[in-house]
Amino acid sequence: MENTDNKNLSFGQRNWFLLCVLVAILNPLAVHFLQIGARKESYKQSMDIHTTDSSKIKDSSYNVASPPQNKKTDSAAH
Asked: What is the pLDDT of residues 6-41, one digit of tens each?
């Protein structure tokens, strides 16, 4: 086995196995917490869309065109 007490080696060179283990543990945890945050934000946005006040939303699913109201012809007919 190589001598790892050599002061010319950097910390990463001396402790490469420890660093690999730490990265293998911390990387999935970091990804997991990022996904949780993204899911919470997505859920929050979907709830904001569903909880909007329905009285402010105009129903435009069925509109029938009505003829223009001409006041001159209405008053002349009476």
From this structure: 678 888 788 899 999 999 999 999 999 999 999 998
Give the burial string for 17-54 (b: 16+ CB within 10 Å, else e). Answer: eeeeeeeeeeeeeeeeeeeeeeeeeeeeeeeeeeeeee
3-class SS at 57? coil
- Closest alpha carbon to 14 in 2, 24, 23, 4: 4
- The model carries a pTM of 0.46
Q: Spell out the domain ranges in the chain.
A: 22-51
- CB–CB of 14/4 below 8 Å? yes
pLDDT at site 70: 77
